Amino acid sequence: MSAPIALLAAVSGYLLGSVPFALLVVRLFGEGESLRSTELLIPGSEETLRTDAVSATAVRLRLGSRYGCLTSLLDMAKAAAITLAFKLGYPGMPYFLIASGMAVVGHVWPVFHRFRGGRGQSPAIGGLFVLDWTAPLIAYPAAQFLGLVTRSRAYVGRFAPMLIAAAWLFLRFREIPYVFWGLGVFGVRVLAMRAEVRQYARLRRAGHLRTLGDELRFLGLGSELSRKLDRLRGLALKLKQRRRRES
To answer: N or C: which end of the chain has fewer CB within 10 A?
Structure first.
């Protein structure tokens, strides 16, 4: 492996990852909106969770799902583009993994926005699609399922996808650099979200955000969906009570 090419992959990946599409979308379509800080109200309480992320989620909360999705797609595209460039330009060499990983680093700590960026999920997904398009289709649903089973969706659902993807890529290609890539991106995301994780843990200890419905309302992801989940949970409880009476 050539050190100059590896350095080129790292620098170019970082610089492209540093492009703050969330900030650009808000400036173009936000009509005076700012991404300096976001406070999310905890359902059923006066508690809030504060984040300074410059991300697609922050855009969605301010401008709606349309612009949040646009931002997420742009963040995916920047990582996918630089990953694909090095994958095609240097086939058989791991430079594309370096470029992909550094695109996530640039997104989280962007040089073009005073090192304050997002939390890395969108560029990680974008790069992962280029590494192996089946990986995100397996890793993310599997992580969400594990999160629901373990009742730790906020932790498992957010952080496990990169570990599952790393294992899947190793099984597919039998090459250790894929494992290093997955562990590296996992580590970057954990560091990026450490403040939010601490706040979330405090809220959970206080009895908040215990159910999936609570989390959906907290994130603003469709009150109708959360109502249906609560209704289904109520029906399940009634059926359980009925069976106990019958037995």
So the answer is: C
